[in-house]
Write a structure and sequence with these properties.
2 strands, Four Helix Bundle (Hemerythrin (Met), subunit A), two-stranded antiparallel sheet, mainly alpha, about 65% helix
């Protein structure tokens, strides 16, 4: 028999867990799906703790919610997944197949859990913990005695999956890494572009904005001093050459007066 507090915790946390699971499936953005899944895991941890299983509750929060799910979330935030790309089905019928497999997996889990608890004695978790000396001790007895083979197989599977991910993401280097001397020689090769830093904005211009080109000694403009994106969208770079000549003339006159003084 459950008391009123346990019933309230179950219906609130259970409802939130179901809402988070539905939100994870129905959300159109991968980041929102990860947040909904974290919400479901936190509510499951509360249910574990409320049912006298503090070890499972802490593991659910620390390992799954705090480490695994936050890792997924940070990876999605760094890499970035466009919602339009995530909705494109590369394999025909994969959504229907996923729904059918999900229903089959749910029925299989219900059947397994039902058959496992059918022959269990009618006693609560508190009595089971007391018989083993505590929740952690009871789990240790089950893991390292009755379910030792399943535990070792799961550990081997996780290690194999981690090694497989490392192997798939590793890329062999086809060529030797270039030295600093080779990189410097490539920068000064003919046709390699500007070897050094681009000229700064024009010092003789009326303003020192980024879209103001530098003025070369012969009076012409150096459009290389302006970044390429600015050159592509700024029409003000088309400056009358007479204006440039006036700027150069004023500059030369000022420098001549300074020499005279």
């Amino acid at each position: 028999m459950t008391n009123v507090g346990e019933a309230i915790v179950f219906w609130i946390c259970g409802g939130l867990a179901v809402v988070g699971a539905l939100g994870m499936i129905l959300s159109r953005k991968a980041v929102h799906s990860a947040l909904f899944l974290a919400m479901t895991m936190i509510n499951l941890a509360v249910l574990y703790i409320a049912n006298s299983a503090p070890f499972l509750g802490m593991v659910q929060i620390i390992v799954y919610t705090g480490a695994v799910m936050m890792l997924f979330l940070f990876v999605l935030m760094v890499v970035g997944v466009d919602s339009s790309d995530s909705l494109i089905e590369t394999i025909r019928g994969q959504r229907l197949a996923a729904i059918l497999f999900g229903i089959a997996l749910g029925l299989l889990l219900v059947a397994i859990v039902g058959s496992a608890i059918a022959d269990m004695p009618d006693r609560g978790l508190e009595e089971a913990n007391a018989a083993a000396g505590g929740n952690v001790e009871g789990l240790a007895v089950l893991i390292f005695s009755d379910y030792l083979l399943a535990f070792e197989a799961t550990a081997a599977l996780l290690i194999t999956a981690a090694m497989g991910a490392l192997v798939l993401t590793h890329r062999d280097r086809w060529q030797a890494k270039k030295t600093q001397r080779e990189l410097s020689e490539e920068r000064f090769m003919v046709g390699a572009g500007h070897p050094g830093n681009k000229p700064s904005p024009g010092v003789y211009a009326r303003h020192n904005a980024v879209n103001t080109p530098a003025i070369l000694p012969d009076g012409s403009l150096s459009l290389e001093s302006v970044p390429a994106p600015v050159r592509g969208r700024d029409d003000s770079l088309i400056i009358d050459h007479r204006q440039v000549s006036e700027i150069v003339e004023i500059t030369e006159t000022g420098s001549a007066d300074g020499d005279a003084k």
